[in-house]
């Protein structure tokens, strides 16, 4: 009976049309009761659909997808905290906000890439919050990974204690040189919070003493 039911479900799914591309074989249906919209997983971004990769693995169409409770407030510089390109001045499918600090704005595709690269170290690129931030991202359809950060497994990066032990600023002002670092003060070495592949002394990048989060020009 189980095999027969499985075959029937597959046959029925093969007949369903994707509301995004109009082709058949749309196996994902909106979780909302009464909604019969179906879509292919690859078509989800174009149709602004959300699939939650945890718990019941629920999927939603553009109309019934979860919305962030926090609203992106107006800022002088509406840029993505990851790629630094312009973002919308309000939350939407493409623009998301950290629920903890409510100051980190980012593109959906940027935070998705960061989630897969950061793995178990995935957190807000600005305030470093992890628990609230990750739960919000999962709810909004961001897929995460339980693997170690990708940069830890990269042979070119090397062991954790050997990574990024130098200042990569165009002009290093530290009297002790690029590899000198201190726990606090102007010669504290900060690593890029997104890629962790470049570092800078606070003083060399004209950062305030209270700065604890920094991103390199490439990110």
**Structural class by helix and strand composition:** alpha+beta
How would you spell out the order of helices and strands? HEEEEEEHHEE
Mean pLDDT: 84
Q: Could you give a short account of the major beta sheet? A: 2 strands, antiparallel
User: Roughly what fraction of the amino acids lie in strands?
Assistant: 5-15%
Number of domains: 3
Q: Could you give the count of β-strands?
A: 8
Radius of gyration: 22 Å
Q: What sort of overall outline do the alpha carbons produce when their principal axes are compared?
A: elongated
What is the percent of helical residues? 10-25%
Keywords: Metal-binding, Zinc, Zinc-finger
Domain RING-type: 80-128
Domain PHD-type: 1-65
Protein name: PHF7 protein
What's the short story on this structure?
This is PHF7 protein. The chain has 3 helices and 8 strands; from the N terminus they run αββββββααββ.
Write a structural description.
The protein is α+β, with helices and mostly antiparallel strands. The chain has helices at residues 2-15, 108-118, 131-139, and strands at 28-29, 38-39, 50-51, 59-60, 95-97, 105-107, 189-191, 199-201. The protein has a two-stranded antiparallel sheet. Strands 3-4 form a two-stranded antiparallel ribbon. A hairpin with a 7-residue loop joins strand 3 and strand 4. The longest helix has 14 residues, at 2-15. The chain is elongated and about 75 Å long. Residues 156-162 have low confidence and may be disordered. It holds the Pfam family PHD_G2E3. GO terms for molecular function: zinc ion binding. Keywords: Metal-binding, Zinc, Zinc-finger. InterPro entries: EPHD, PHD-type_Zinc_Finger, PHD_PHF7/G2E3-like, Znf_FYVE_PHD, Znf_RING, Znf_RING/FYVE/PHD.
